[in-house]
Structure to design on (513 residues):
């Protein structure tokens, strides 16, 4: 039985139907990468899974519990949020708390772990994402990449069964994307179940078990990365992939300097570092 | 002949200061405290669009910001005893209307007045906290009240602090109107002295200087508080 099994997920903003019946099944330990043009509903899809957005119809089996996604109960919401975590595009660190306090917050306030023990756990995870030496910095004193790594530590520290990544590198300056992707790769290597909305094709190649291509509120194509990314069957997928590979080519940056965004992402094509699930 | 009798001014400082300032501060602090509570509750009513309550909040805010404080004081000072007497007559309750000290009416009217101003500044301060942090709290499994208490209110307070400070300074100066309900605060004391000695100019100047001094002290305290509250913001 899959860890998550979503059937017929629908969601509308007013009269605008954003998700028109999405099905997706996720096995434990699977890395699912969701791609698609903006407005395709991929972020909304992810945000419906932990009830940050209200879906109108659908059914989800989450870790053995069946949830009517048209009518979430309070205990459904608690159940899903207790065993899932999310990493946001804009990091969403608590601005009045240091990196360490950000990671400790959920441990102390939700898991009711004693402060000194929570501190140790928090330091462990901050160390994991390479942020230990900055654990007493406030978010405003950290770069975007550092904030996002701290946010990943905050998510992992809750010991979730699945982590949702909602465009985790889209708000980052190009030179900071690599450090965040590396941390995410490490998380993938350790066997975490991950749903990642991203435009990073090379990352998808490197870690994905399944790539989902969404457009217009439906899943257009789904399959292993070599199929969806290298041999897409649908015209819409082909068009999208062509478009973003152009975007990620060499372009003119600020002040007319030539920038190679995330150069690393084009070197790892051949050697997949994360073993296939 | 001198315009001002300096010796007289120095002599009347103790009476105005020792008797007047504590009353002004009491009215200021008590009503600011209750005003903050009223403001927070109203802000939450309006932000969460609680039916009926948010409309009531709008009317309340509009009335107390749209009528002069002096009028509100007069209405409450003369109105509450009439209402209490009517209640006594109707339900046979034995409330001792004349035994209620005038300052208690002032606590009520100043709290309501300042609460209407603090409602709006609290509301905008709460709305200034990025919603993403609320969502982050939800995904960690935090409840709405916990997110309010741990994430939103601490940050909103920082944003609102300068505004609160100005409101409090304004409030402290506005306590001077309490003399019309015969509360012997700073102006009340000055009037008593002036009436007894006919030294109006001197008495009121001493009163003005005392207000000024209080406000200077308050501004310094606020500056320190703001510095502390903003320590999580990037240092220049």
């Amino acid at each position: 039985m899959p860890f998550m099994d979503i059937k017929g997920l629908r969601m509308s903003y007013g009269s605008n139907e954003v998700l028109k019946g999405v099905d997706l099944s996720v096995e434990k330990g699977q890395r699912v990468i969701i791609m698609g043009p903006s407005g395709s509903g991929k972020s909304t899809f992810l945000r419906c899974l932990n009830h940050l957005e209200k879906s109108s119809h659908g059914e989800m089996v989450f870790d053995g519990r069946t949830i009517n996604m048209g009518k979430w109960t309070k205990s459904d919401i608690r159940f899903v949020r207790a065993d899932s975590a999310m990493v946001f595009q804009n990091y969403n660190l608590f601005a009045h708390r240091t990196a360490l306090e950000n990671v400790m917050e959920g441990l102390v306030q939700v898991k009711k772990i004693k402060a000194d023990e929570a501190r140790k756990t928090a330091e462990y995870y901050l160390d994991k994402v390479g942020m230990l030496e900055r654990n007493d910095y406030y978010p405003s004193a950290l770069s975007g990449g550092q904030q996002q790594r701290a946010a990943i530590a905050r998510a992992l520290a809750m010991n979730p069964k699945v982590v949702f990544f909602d465009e985790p590198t889209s708000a980052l300056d190009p030179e900071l994307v690599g450090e965040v992707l590396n941390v995410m790769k490490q998380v993938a290597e350790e066997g975490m179940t991950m749903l990642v909305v991203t435009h990073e094709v090379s990352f998808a190649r490197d870690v994905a078990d399944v790539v989902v291509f969404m457009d217009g509120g439906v899943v257009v194509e789904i399959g292993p990365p070599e199929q969806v990314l290298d041999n897409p069957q649908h015209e819409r997928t082909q068009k999208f992939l062509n478009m973003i590979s152009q975007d990620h080519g060499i372009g003119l940056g600020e002040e007319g300097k030539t920038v190679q965004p995330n150069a690393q992402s084009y070197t790892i094509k051949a050697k997949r570092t994360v073993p296939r699930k | 002949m001198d315009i001002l009798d300096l010796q007289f001014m120095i002599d009347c400082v103790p009476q105005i200061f020792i008797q007047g300032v504590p009353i002004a501060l009491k009215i200021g602090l008590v009503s600011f405290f209750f005003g903050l509570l009223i403001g927070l509750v109203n802000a939450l009513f309006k932000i969460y669009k609680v039916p009926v309550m948010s409309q009531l909040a709008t009317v309340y805010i509009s009335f107390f910001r749209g009528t002069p404080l002096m009028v509100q004081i007069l209405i409450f000072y003369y109105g509450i005893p009439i209402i209490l007497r009517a209640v006594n007559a109707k339900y046979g309750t034995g409330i001792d209307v004349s035994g209620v000290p005038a300052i208690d009416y002032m606590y009520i009217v100043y709290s309501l007045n300042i609460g209407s101003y603090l409602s709006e500044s609290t509301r905008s301060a709460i709305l200034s906290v990025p919603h993403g942090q609320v969502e982050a709290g939800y995904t960690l499994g935090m409840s709405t009240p916990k997110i309010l208490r741990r994430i939103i209110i601490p940050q909103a307070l920082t944003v609102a602090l300068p505004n609160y400070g100005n409101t409090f300074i304004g409030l402290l100066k506005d306590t001077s109107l309490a003399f019309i309900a015969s509360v012997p605060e700073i102006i009340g004391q000055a009037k008593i002295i002036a009436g007894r000695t006919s030294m109006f100019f001197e008495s009121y100047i001493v009163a003005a200087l005392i207000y000024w001094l209080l406000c200077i002290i308050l501004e310094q305290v606020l500056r320190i508080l703001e510095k502390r509250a903003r320590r999580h913001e990037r240092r220049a």
Residues 131 and 152 of chain B are 9 Å apart (CA to CA). The two ends of chain B are 56 Å apart (CA to CA). The mean pLDDT of chain B is 92.
